[in-house]
Amino acid sequence: MPAEADPLxxxxxxxxxxxxxxxxxxxxxxxxxxxxxxxxxxxDGVSRHHVEVRPAAGRWRIRDLGSANGVxxxxxxxxxxEELVLPAHVALxxxxxxxxxxxxxxxxxxAPAERAGSSAVGAPxxxxxxxxxxxxxxxxDPATAFRAEGEGSAATAGRRTSGAPADPGSGxxxxxxxxxxxxxxxxxxxxxxxxxxxxxxxGSFSVxxxxxxTIVLDDAAVSRRHLEVxxxxxxxxxxDLGSANGVYLNDALIxxxxxxxxxxxxxxxRSGICLQITRSSPAQESSQVAxxxxxxxxxxxxxxxxxxxxxxxxxxxxIKARLLDEAEAEDSGEYTRIVRxxxxxxxxxxKKSYRKVIWVLGVLxxxxxxxASYQQFALANTRRLALELFHDIKTxxxxxxxxxxxxxxxxxxxxxTIAAISSERLRVADEQLKAEREKIAAEQKRMVQERQRLxxxxxxxxxxxxxxxxxxxxxPGKRYEEDLIARVASELGESELExxxxxxxxxxxxxxxxxxxxxxxxxxxxMEQNNYLPVVAGALKKHGLPLYFIYLPLQESNxxxxxxxxxxxxxxxxGAWQLLPATxxxxxxxxxxxxxxxxxxxxxxxxxxxxxxxAGVKYLKRIYSREAQASGLLVMASYNYGDTRVRKMIRxxxxxxxxxxxxxxxxxxxxxxxxxxxxxxxxxxxxxxxDPPHFGFKFSPPLLMVAADGQQESNTGRQKGRRQ
Length: 724
Hints:
15% strand, six-stranded antiparallel β-sheet, 24 strands, alpha+beta, 724 residues, Tumour Suppressor Smad4, 17 helices
């Protein structure tokens, strides 16, 4: 085992060298202005926590706790921490207060000092060393200490101070209270009977919670100024200073003041802290270094009485048993009965409080279960309503799309018929042509009304989704990006309420791909510089398609109108929309003489952005309204792979918007990697376009610009209407 450091004797001295207090320590202690220090020095020149002294490997070390004015040993300021060479004089900054630190002797102190001119260890200031030094008892608790205040305070007035011996050779020290002052030995015991600290006092002293008391007890049951012990003639008295919980002397509650017999046991209110007080003289004290025996923290009826001359000790377990036992002991004193009654009353109050707490917790638990059940029911019901409405929306979109395609074909047929009639000069009744035109106009009007109903259904669906999301528990940090991804997927015809768990993480993976290069930034800049966005957005709006399809040409060609694809068995795709020759011709686009050559041809209309956009959007509308069943992700997959495997997979799925979507396709079939990448690159680009700065891009949200342009056109139209 490591060697123990010798116990220390510490004298707190003022600027004139007067002893303010004496301490003994076996373990670490601190000194400073704050009341939680073991040595309290009430001086503005002392920091709140000024210095620490601690044992280490059988020696003592001293450390400056970051004080403002420093720590000085024999007029030398220490840097941070160093070994403490004993004896030592430690000055606390420029306050004038200082500590005289010496080793505490463990043998009799009655023998005279053997070295001439040296003071005995632990002797008070001014002691010459030629006579036996008066010693103070070594406390049993390793951390024992008491608090000291500045000179002139209540804390200083009653403490034993230094002075010259009244009679050479007598060993009796003259105190400020008189030449032969009595010494009171005060032992402070915790509620469990353990020793807290010991004091030697030569005059009146006070006890309380306030830091200006001689003995400071930091306990809520102790009043700020609780009691005082003072000299009264040749005897002593204890005075209750108006405490809230009273003062008990040898089990008896005192009214205002009472004569103090010795030895005496004083209980400080209901705190359980006991002061054990005995009387001795300086001559008796100088004879030996004593270890005080542990004494019961709670005085019982058989404790010291006036004239009894002794104090009975009890173990903490015995005290606890006497106080908590159901049956009261026959020898219980008045104080014990009072404490037992207080404990019983407190138990009753606590039981009632516990019952109330348990009842309240039970009610809250029941309400929590009901709330959780209702929340789950509401979430399930809202989700069901939202999904039903979503599928109704898709069904209506498919129906409207097919009707609009049929209407466009009817209008084209009517236009061709009128042209044929005019060229061949055939006579047809004007009534028939008029009726056909009215039929087409009525159908167009119905389409507008259905579109309005579709918009209302989508608004209602969004309300359902927001209500369902409010009933879910999610982390706020991830919620924003999840909401962006879900919103884009919903606008592309996929219900966010049916998103697979791995979908969000997959989209985030492709967002990182975009973030790893400059392709998207350059493509958006190309689109903005050439003003392509209004052309694409206008065509998509006209055909009732999701505006997120503006990112399809970005993936196809980076909005490069002169882009030329590789040779395939279906021909060479060209232009910003990468249309194949057959697809271009099907939608009225001339391909030019170099259609099968990987070269630019100014006669090929696929290189004309406006014509190519009209053809590309019509192609998307046909896929969207027929085989894709209003699923934007299926449209992307079909556009990428044309009339081959993917289109065949889609056609083999049930002809129902509820069963034909991208999630069902990925579960039933293994998509080609090219198609999988194609779909998720477009989808992730659409998510980035909702809030580019959030993802680290330096361009404005494209669809926000489209909305602003639309609002400006609407305002311009209203102004023209007013002028007309």
